[in-house]
C-alpha cells in the first residue's frame, strides 16, 4: 500500500512539474509570438484589431439584400431560405469563363427572366462606393459575417449577365467588382477567399470587353499577396484570442489543465503562419506549391491551416491571370509592344505569335480552383 502511494506521489509530482513547465513555456512562447513582426509592414499580432475597427451593417446593405431577393439571391444573415439549385446555369458560366477565346455560348433562359431585377441591382451597386457589412474582429469565433454564399451567387449572376449582354457588360462587371471590393477589406480569410474567387471570375469575363474600362485599374492596384497575409495574421490573432478568452472563462479543472497546451498551440500557429508569410512575401513565382502545416501535436493549428496552401496557389496564379487580361486589352487596342512579354512572375513570360497569347509555362490550377486559361486566341 505504501509503495503504491509512493508511486502515485511520484507520478503526481512529475505531472505537476510537467504542467508547470508547460505553463511557463506557454507564457514565454506567447510573449515572443506577440512581439514578432510580420512582413510587408503588417506589424505584430496586436495590430490586427486596430486594422479592423468594429462596424455595423449600413442601410445600403439592407437595400441591396432586398434588391438581390428580387433576383432570386438570398443575402440575408442568416440565410432565410435554402440555396437555389442552378446546375445548368453554373455549368454554362464556368464553361464561358474557362474558354480561351472571346466567344460566348447561348445563355440560359433565367437571365432574361431576371432582366429587370439585375438592372436594378446594377444601378444600385454602381451608385455606391462601398457596401458595409458588420465587422467585429474582437468577437473572434462569434464575429459576424455577411452571407458569403449569397454574395458569391450574386457575383456570378452579374458576371453571367455581362457575358450575355455586351451592351451593359462593363457596368455589370463593375457592379460585381464593388461586391468583391468590400470583402477584400474584411479581416477573415474565408471572406478573402470568396473575394478572390469573385475577382478571378470578373477578370476572366473582362477579356470579352472591347476596351479596358476605367474601373479595371482598381483591380490591378490591390496587393493581393499582402491582403491574404493580413488575413492569415488575423486568423492567428483570432485563435490566440479564443484561447485567452477560454483562460478567463475556465470554470472546470480540465480547462485549467489543458490551457497551457492550447496557448502553446496558438503561439505555434502564429509562428508557422508568420514564417510562411515571410516566405511568400519574398517569392514572385506564380507557380507555387507551399506546404504550410502545423506540427502533429498542434490540433488547433491543423484546423486553422487546412486550406492555407491552396489559397496561396490561387493568389499566386492570379498574378498571371491579371497580366493575361491586361495584355488582351493591349492587343485589342493595337498597343502590343515587346515590353509586354515581361511578367512580374519570375518563373515565366508572355509569348504572342500567330494571333495567340500564351504564358510560357503551365501554372497548376487544381480542382476545385476554376482553371482560368493563360492562353487566348484573338478573333
Mean pLDDT, rounded to whole units?
Answer: 87
Instruction: Give the biggest sheet.
Output: 3 strands, antiparallel
SSE string, helix = H, strand = E? HHHHHHHHHHHHHHEEE
Q: How are the strands of the largest sheet arranged?
A: 1-2-3
Helix/strand-derived category reads mainly alpha
Helix content percent band: 55-70%
Approximate shape:
globular
Which residues sit in consecutive blocks of at least 5 with pLDDT less than 50?
11-24
SS element count, helices: 14
**What is the total tally of β strands?**
3
Supply database-style keywords:
single chain; 379 residues; mainly alpha; three-stranded antiparallel sheet; 14 helices; globular
Summarize the structure.
The chain has 379 residues and is mostly helical. 58% of the residues lie in helices and 3% in strands.
Explain how this protein is built.
The protein has 379 residues and is mainly alpha-helical. Helix content is 58%, strand content 3%. Strands 1-2-3 form a 3-stranded antiparallel beta sheet, with helices on one face. About 4% of the residues have low confidence.
Ordered list of secondary-structure elements with their pairings:
Elements (H helix, E strand, L loop, with lengths): L1 H34 L12 H4 L7 H12 L16 H11 L12 H4 L1 H12 L21 H17 L4 H16 L4 H18 L9 H6 L2 H26 L3 H30 L16 H6 L3 H25 L17 E4 L2 E4 L15 E3 L2
Antiparallel strand pairs: 1-2, 2-3
Helix pairs in contact: 1-12, 3-6, 6-8, 7-8, 7-9, 8-9, 9-14, 11-12, 11-14
